[in-house]
Amino acid sequence: GDARRGQRIFVNNEAAQCVRCHTIFEFGGNVGPGLAGVADRLNPRQRLEALVRPSARLAPGYETLLVTLNDGTVTAGTVMERTDESIKLKVGKEDIQIIAVADIAEQETLPSSMPSMDTRLTRREIRDLVAYLGSLHEEESK
User: What global pTM score does this model have?
Assistant: First the structure.
């Protein structure tokens, strides 16, 4: 893939609309995870999978969990932390709930709101986008 073409796709492609939800070094939206340093976190195969199967692996802080408790109560929130004993959920803007795993009857990870790019971009465009994401390393300290 060609990283320069991939950058243009990220910023300008109306079908993909990457920049609406993702930020790179403070440019773009903040709905999805920031992509600065994504090349240091994900290998090329993982970057491709993130584009064509966005729900396969969710970035930390972006997993939405639907939980049904043993008493029938249902709640949903963003997973902030998981341990063997509990799950910490952010519910709404400010409410934090810590739920004991023993109190959970069922839990379901909700799919990512990001659409699959294989229905929006050509294979060449996806390769270019993977190449561009591969160029995004953490900024060096000055």
Answer: 0.81
